[in-house]
Amino acid sequence: MTEPVNLNARIIEALYTEGLVLSDEVRAAFDLSPRACNDEREDTDAARLALSCEALRTTTRMMHSVAWLINHRAFFRNEISEFQLRRHGRIARHLPDSAPERLALLSAEIQALIRTTERFYARLVRLDAGWRARTEPGGQAPAIQRLRERLLHAVG
């Protein structure tokens, strides 16, 4: 098994840029127009409901992603401590994936975008888990590291 990824500012910046672009694509795609449904003549209540539900799930997924990335950017810019990041910078591990029966009612383009956001989010969850694995078994940073952070924060 490989060692967990040690996140750095360049990785976070690249992911942040990717997350913003993907968020913009999501915003543009879910303008709630009928073209997002699988078939224009099939603009039924079920298709509109599927579009609304998947739009909500997908935008929520991207908001969580961008929030996680913003916290990590703040950490690498020394705006928050590692302790603050560990406490407040968690990513939700179990956001529900899209419902296959609802996805079938949406256009292929929208389906592909939703799957892309799910893969992006899964990457962030894996990175967060790997980053957190660097700590002691109890999930706490070593005591000396916490003390150094407190001193740095108080002095710096």
From TrEMBL:
Gene3D superfamilies: Protein of unknown function DUF1465
Protein name in UniProt: DUF1465 family protein
Organism this protein belongs to: Novosphingobium piscinae
